Structures are given as structure tokens and as C-alpha cells.
Amino acid sequence: MNGIARRTLLRAAFGSAFGAPFCIAHAARAAADERRILVVLELSGGNDGLNTVVPYGDDNYQRLRPNLAIKPNRVRKLDDRHGFNPGMAGFERLYKDGKLAIVHGCGYQQPSFSHFASMAYWHTAAPNSGEETGWVARLADALRPDAAPNFIVNIDRSQSLAVKGRRHVPVVFDDPDKFARKSFFEQRELIDGVERATQNDSANRAFLRDISNSARDASLLVREACAKYATPVDYGIVPVDLRKVAALIDAKLPARLYYVAYRNNAFDTHVHQADLHQRLLTYVSDAVFGFVRDIERIGRADDVVLMAFSEFGRRVPENTSLGTDHGTAGPMFIAGKPVKGGQYGQPVSLAERTPDDNLIHTTDFRRTYATAIERWLGADSRAVLNDRFEAFDFV
Amino acid sequence: MRRLLATLLLLVVSAGSAQAAPEWSGDLRPIAASDWNRARAAHLLERAGFGGTPEEIDATLALGVEGAVARLVRPQGIDNGHLPAFEHSRVHDPGLDPFPASRPATTEQAKAEGKALGVLVKPEGNRRLQPVVNRFFYWLRASLLETNRVAYWWANRMLATKRPLEEKMALFWHGHFATHEDKVRDYRKMLGQLQLLQQKGLGDFRELMIGVAKDPAMLAFLDAGVNVKGAPNENFAREIMEMFTMGVGNYSEHDIREAARAFTGWNYAGTRFAFDAAKHDAGEKTVFGKKGNFDGVQVIDLILAQPVTAEYLAGRIYRYFVQDEITPELRKRLGAVLRDKRYRIAPLLETIFRSRDFYSAESVATRIKSPVELVIGTYRKLGLKHVPGVPDFNDVTTALGQHLLHPPTVAGWAYGRSWITPGLLIERGNFIRDVLFPDFLAEANDRYPSLVAGEQVRAVHERIARGLDVTAATTPEGKEGDGAMAMSNRMADRDEEFNTRYGSYRGWQQAVEAIKPIPRTMANPDLSAIVSKSGSRTTRQAVEVLAARFLSVSIGDEQRAAWTDFLTRELGTDRIERARTYMEDGLRMLLHLMLASTDYQLG
After folding, report:
1. Crossing angle of helices B393-400/B130-160, nearest 10°?
2. How far is CA B229 from the centre of its chain?
3. Short-list B301, B219, B225, CA closest to B259
4. What is the Cα–Cα distance from B603 to B519, expressed in whole angstroms?
5. Per-residue pLDDT tens digits for A242-291
6. For the segment B149-207, what is each residue's pLDDT rounded down to a tens digit?
7. Residue A286 and residue B418: Cβ atoms within 8 Å?
8. Rounded to a whole number, what is the largest CA-CA distance in chain A?
């Protein structure tokens, strides 16, 4: 335990030492970019990428998925090879408007088929390692080493590993209406008091005090922002918390990193997946389309980019239950006005598969992260990802 | 370094008699009879159960450590006859079995066969499939509401049982063998699984694992029905190895595929296990390098023979009861204990609960309570006999992140620090307030849906009552004009054979009609009596009494002074006797402050 902590500290120290010239070189640009915001959307459960961005022109696709393949006349065609799932009207609109980038074949070496292991790899951006911090938190450390409060917002019941870090305490809440202490007037001073550490605090006691102070700092801001926010934009049936994100952005919360999720392993479609999967994609696509439009409406279109991912795709052949099993690579999506729409990365091959019928990934997912880190937020992606990854130019 | 610091701290705070010698951490040897004291008895009840009242702590202390632990881990002789059996609302009928996979599957079946879910399609007229669709939603809602009643029934057992470790262990296994009602869609199966965990949770793990593998809720949850000869589905075998027995990284993908074949043909019929020999693959399999015509039970035995299995289980049990983390070395030693005891859980727990490690400074009052522990523990320490209906137990535990019978994923709950976020910490404090100053105007969730669907159901209800036609009543309001309406909102009612939204509404209504209500009683605790009985004469003594009763952490002087000043201000005097006729409100406000503090989150 101590050994790991020391190693990480050393690495952090070296990271910042090497990062220093970079920071100076980019200081001017970073200062100008301080309005820029990244929203990460997680699709939990392993989204079936092949039925999302459909390779409808590939014979192997129709052959390996006799029941589940989406027929060419039903897909929302992007070009003569690929098209969106019929449920994704919103993504199609964004794509045609040049506001949506698709990165093909995102995955990593030695893929895990466990939801939890694979999701942890995406959260930490460190596959097959024991990394304990999330990449979003490390990005926050790089952008704001002074750990200014309310810099990361994670809307969920529990905190994501992606935002777990060493310096920043993320603002984590679910229902903004309930993000307030109930109390009598007479209790206010004591219940809202700053929690001061004492000498014999256990690690968990110190942790609780940090969280308590973060709760006190953020709750009023968040509550008021969400309560005040009214929008005519339709986010669909499941807004995946993106309306709350828009409210906080509109209220000028200092947060520059937002993390939301389509929760509860929803995309784990082992059985009878066709209707269910299409419906899930409709919800996501409606929500993202609504979000992009809403952000334009509030005049922040130039400042906000959203990135969506899932922990793995599904196996290429359908299973015998009209569903698909855990697989490997899948597409990532980046949406927003600043995005240069189009397709990036090499599309996966359905002909050349692993011995267990899985896709061979063509893009290390950290290239997409690196692009967002470097080209969008102006931070040193090497310091955040502990390795060098070639960026795309979608932003 | 850490040890040195702990030693220094020990010197500073050595006044506290509960302080253990620092070298106890990691030491599995039992504590001596002379080490047993009241603070340790309280710690044992906190961890092995849901906390104790002062009277219960005294009784536990009197048993001595050996007797107290034995009573917890082998409670079979203790009479629990005062606990009522679950009282069914009788919402199920045979037509609902087997329940189709989805609404589309239901309506397809109705179109093809003229009947589904025991309901005939109307021969003529508008929306001929509507009764079938209503029935589909009826059962979704009825099962959900009845599952909440099962959770409430379980909560009452946790509160009132004389065998607390049985329920605490069932709660552990429920997270371990995480099964979610949303997917199972049958409260009867959820109840059956829970009873299995309650009955076998302290027994032999092999028996428990086989029971769970043959449990209809688990088989439904992991899609066992589609795991058949020639087309094995790996989900079931993967979860057994990854989540239930070995942990990720200790088996190969090949082991999973081969094991999946051994479980082919395992299925359920209604609420019973059913084996279909015709769908079972009896051929030779290779699992962990061993060859044989294995069936599912034999695969479980192969898994139990792997050294890592006992270590994985012992590590998870330790982390649930003792500390958030375990060293690999201690995990190995506890694994060896479990293996030596042939996978019997009680002797492992006996070793843990008697060990010096369990009473070490690193273990005592350092663990973040889970939401269910927080809620039940609060009610126990308040001396309640029933779980209140206001605040609603399921609403509270949902808001705090531990809705029973609805674990978030197949990995169950993560425990430890994952229970706490800024939002959740605030919710924990608000729960305390809702107990002490209940929201007596609240609408009960089992009478009026306030889930995601709630708003829509209410709107439809009101418009239908105004005489609107079904289409008009079910079109969402308040969205911007045509072109920009989200696809999901535009598409909902296209099929004219039936209306999904109306079905959802009518299903709710029928379910609420059929379900027995949860009694909406309130806690109404008597803090004045607690303080009076303790003989407290000053507000400072009252603060001491309440802190000792509720908090595991010892509070600092500054905190004590702030709370005492608060109570003195509220009562208008520092003399309890003077305030006896009106002190309840002030005491409740004080207790709210105490239990909303970060210190109360630790047990």
C-alpha cells in the first residue's frame, strides 16, 4: 500500500517536472481556453457497437448476425459502408450538421470481458494495471493543480472511479432538489459548519470531513442552478442527466469536467436485444442531440464538447438468445459545435477476428482521450495518461 | 512510520479504555477474556449485527467474548418466533407464468395466439390488445411494489431479530449474489432467494453456492434459460467464477466456456428449479485443466478446490465485517481458515470476531456504515420495535444508494467510501431529520407512483378523468413544437392495436388496488425518556448520554461544548429537571445535529 502510494507520488512529481515546459508553452492558450468544458458520457454495460454504427455494406455482418443484423434499407446511412441504428435520429442530425465525430474501433490490448475490470480500465485509462486514480481526476489535477473547489461534477448515485483522484474532491450528486440539508434555522450554524480535522482522525474520518466540506461548498450553487433552469428543449425520455449539466453550465459553475452515465449496466444486452438496444440508443441519441441544441441555445456552443464511450462492444456473431455477448472494440462519439464531424480511425474488420470471434481494436481509446485532453483542454496528455498517444484532429 | 504515529497517538489518548495495542492489527489470535469490555461488546454488536441498545450491550458483555461470539455465529437455538412470516398480497396468478421477455414479446404472442398472460384479445373494436398490455404492466408494477414489501419485511426482521448475524450475513450474501428485481420481474423468486440466504448464510458455502446456482431468481437474472446444449451462454458461468467464487483473473476464458456447458439445461419453472436433460450437454469438458463429463455441481466442486476460492471469499467477508482493505497476507491466512473448516462460514466468522485484529485500533469505529446499517442501526438505537412507514424504508435506502433487492449491478454494492458523496452525505443527514421531524404530508410511494414514470402516470390519470380520449390523454405535454420533439416521445403511440402509456397507467392503478399497503406509522421516539432514565441532570450530561448511545467515535471537547451550548440555548437552561416538560423538541434537534455529523457515519 505504502509502496504504491510512494510510487504514484514519485510519478506525479516527475510528471509535473516533465510537464513544466509544456505548461509554459501552452500557458497563453490554456488561459484563453478556460471557458472550455468537457462532458464525458458513459454507456454502461457494453454497447453493441456493430448495431450502433452499422457496417451494413459488409457481407460478414449480415452473415454473422442472421437475426440481429439491421437491414441496409433500415439503417440511417452515413456513407456506402456505415449507417446509424434506425433509433438514432438525433445522432444522424448531428452528424449531417458536422457536429459529431465517430472514432472507429476503440479498445485496448488484452481486453477484459468483465464489465467491472474493463470499465475500470476505461476509468483509469490504464488497462491491465493497478492504477487507483481516474483519468478525469488526473486531468483536473493537470488543469488546476491548486484543486479549486467545484472543478469536477459527477452526477450519479455513487462516485465514478473516473473522477477519483488525489487532490480534487468532485461534486457528486444525483437529485439537485435533495442536494440541501434540511434543518431548523437555529441549527444552521452548527449543521453548515466547516469540519475541522483532529489529530487522531482515521483515514475514513478525514475522508468524510473532506466530502462534508465539498457538500457545503457546492450544494447551494447546484440546487439554485437546477431549480432556476427552464428550457424548451426536448431531451427525450431519458435525459441521462445532461439537462442538469446544461443548467450548471448556464449558471457558470466553475466546473470544467462533467461526468454522467447511462447507468446500471443498461447496455448489457445478452437476450432479445433488438428492440431494447434500439430503444436505448434512441434515448442516448435524443439526450445528446437535445444537449447540443440546448448548449447552443444558452450561447455556450463554442465552449462545450461531449465524449461518449462504453467499456466494450459485443462479440461479432449473435448468440442463440437473439442477443450478443461481451466483446471488445466499439465506436466512441464526440459531439458539439467545436467538433469537426466525420469518421476517424480505421473501421474494424469483420473478416479478421480473434479466435474467439471478437473484433481486433484499431484505435487505442486513449488516443481519443488524448485528443480531448490536448487539443480541446490544452493540457499535457502525457502527464495525464502516463504515456504518449497520437491525437486525432476532430477538435 | 504509521505504527510509530499510532503509538504516539495512543500515548496521547490512552485514557480511552477501548484503545487496543497497535500490534493487534493483522493478528488473528483471540483476545483474552481479560481484554473483553463494554466498548468491545458494543463494537461486536455494531459489526456482527445492526448495533445495540445499552441494555443489549450489557447483556453481550456479560456473556464474555467466547459466549457472545458463539451466540452470534450459531444462533440456531434462539427463538425468533415473534417475527411474522411474509404476508403475500396475492397479486400473482398462473396466467402470468411464464412472463414474456418484454412488452413487444407480449403483444407479438397475443397477436399470434389470440391470448397472452392469461388474457384474451378482444374480438373487435378499438385497441383490441389493450387488456393484454394492461396486464403486462400490471404485473411489472405489482411485482415491483410487492418486492418493496419484501424489503420492508426484511428490514423489520433486521430490526427485531434476536439473531442479528443471520440477517447481517444475508445482507452480505445479497450483495455477493446480487440479483435485481428489475430483471427477474417476480417478487416470489426474490423472496425465495432471500430466504435461502437467511437460512443458509451461516452454514456451508458449498450448499449455499449450489442453492444459489439452482435458485430461480438467479437463473432468471443470469438468463440461464438460454444456456442450452450446442449453444452455451457464458453469462452464468462467468458470474459464478468472477463474482461468486474466484474473482477476475483467476480463470481463463476457456474455463468459462467449458463451465457454461456444464450448466446447460439448468432452468426454472415458476418458482422451482427445473433440469432439462435434453438441453444438457453431458459431453466431456476441460475445466482448470481437468477433464470429465462434468455437470454444474461438479464444476462448483472444481471451483471450491481452487485455493484462490477460499481466499477470495474470506477476503470479501473480512472487508464486509472488519476493514475496507485486506493485505494479501491476511487474506491468505483467512482463506486457509475457511478451507480448513471445509467452507463452513460460522467458524470463519468466529475466528474473525474473536481475533485481536477485529478489536485493533485500525478496525474499531473506522468503517463507513452502509445505508441499510445506518437506517436499521438508527432505529435500533432509538429503541423502535417496528420500521416506520414514514419516512418510507425503500425511498430512504434508494436515496442513500442501497435499495434492497435492487443492487446496482451484478457486482452488488461496492461498500466503503463508495457510500459517500457530497450528495449522499447530505441525504444521510436528511434521513435523520425525516425520522425525528417526519414529513407527515408525504404521499406514499406504494399508493401513488413517484418513480420516473410517476409524472406521466399522474398526467394520464388526470386527463382520462376529464374525459379525454386515450390518444389525447397520453400525448406528452409541454414539449416544444413538432420538428424538434425527441424521437422517443414521438414514437410512443404509433401502434393502434394498443396504447402503451395507457397500459402503463392502468397497470399501475390495478397494481395499487391489489397490493397491501405498508403502514404509514412514524418513529415518534421518546428521547426525553432516554435522557431522564439515564439520570442526566445537566445538558452536558444529556449530550454525553446521547453521544455514547449513538456514536462509535469518541467526540472532541470542542464538539461536546458546541452541542452542549446548543441544547442549553434551545432549552433555555442547562438543567434537565427544569426543562423536563418541554425538552423533546430540543433533544431531537440536538440528536439531528449529532447524527447528521460525519462521525455518525462511522461504525
Report:
1. 90
2. 35
3. B301
4. 30
5. 999 999 999 999 999 999 999 888 999 888 899 989 999 999 999 999 99
6. 999 999 999 999 999 999 999 999 999 999 999 889 999 999 999 999 999 999 999 99
7. no
8. 72
CA distances from B585 to A184, B390, B408, B508, B588 (A): 11, 18, 38, 39, 5
**Is B488–A286 a contact, with Cβ atoms under 8 angstroms apart?**
yes
- B7 touching A, CB under 8 A? no
Taking CB atoms and an 8 Å limit, are A157 and B596 in contact across chains?
no
Burial readout B137-172 (b: 16 or more C-beta within 10 A, e: otherwise): bbbbbbbbbbbbbbbbbbbbbbbbbebbbbbbbbbb
Nearest residue of A to residue B220, measured between CA atoms: A271
> Which residues fall within 8 angstroms of residue A310, CB to CB, at 6 or more apart?
A42, A43, A44, A45, A46, A47, A49, A267, A330
Query: Measured between CB atoms, does B409 come within 8 Å of chain A?
Result: yes
pTM metric for this prediction: 0.82
Phi-psi region of B416 (alpha: psi -120 to 50; beta: other; left: phi over 0): left
- Residues B61-113 have pLDDT tens digits of 999 999 999 999 999 999 999 999 999 999 999 999 999 988 888 999 999 99
Alpha-carbon distance of B225 to B184, in angstroms, equals 12
* CB-CB contact of B285 with B261 (8 Å): yes
Taking the C-alpha atoms of residue A165 and residue A303, their distance in angstroms, rounded to an integer, is 25
Contact (Cβ atoms closer than 8 angstroms) between residue B317 and residue B73: no
Nearest CA in chain A to B407: A264
- Chain B interface mutation, best of A151, A183, A233, highest count of B Cβ atoms under 10 Å: A183
Cα dihedral A177, A180, A182, A184 sign = negative
| Cβ contact A233–B589 (<8 Å) | no
Residues 54-93 of A with CB under 8 A from B: 87, 89-90
To 10 degrees, what angle do helices B422-436 and B393-400 make? 160
Q: How far apart are CA A381 and CA A389, in angstroms?
A: 8
3-state class of A353 per DSSP?
strand
Cell of A352: 479478421
Q: How far does the CA of residue B82 sit from the closest CA of chain A (Å)?
A: 36
What is the edge-to-edge ordering of all strands in the sheet holding A83-84? Answer: A53-54, A83-84, A76-77
Q: Which chain B residues in 454-493 lie under 8 Å from chain A, judged by CB atoms?
A: 479-480, 484-489, 491
Q: Grid coordinates in use for A386?
A: 502516463
Query: Which residue in the block uniquely carries the three cell numbers 496521547?
Result: B12
B602 contact residues in A (CB cutoff 8 A): 202, 204-205, 208
Q: Which residues pair with A259 in a beta bridge?
A: A40, A154
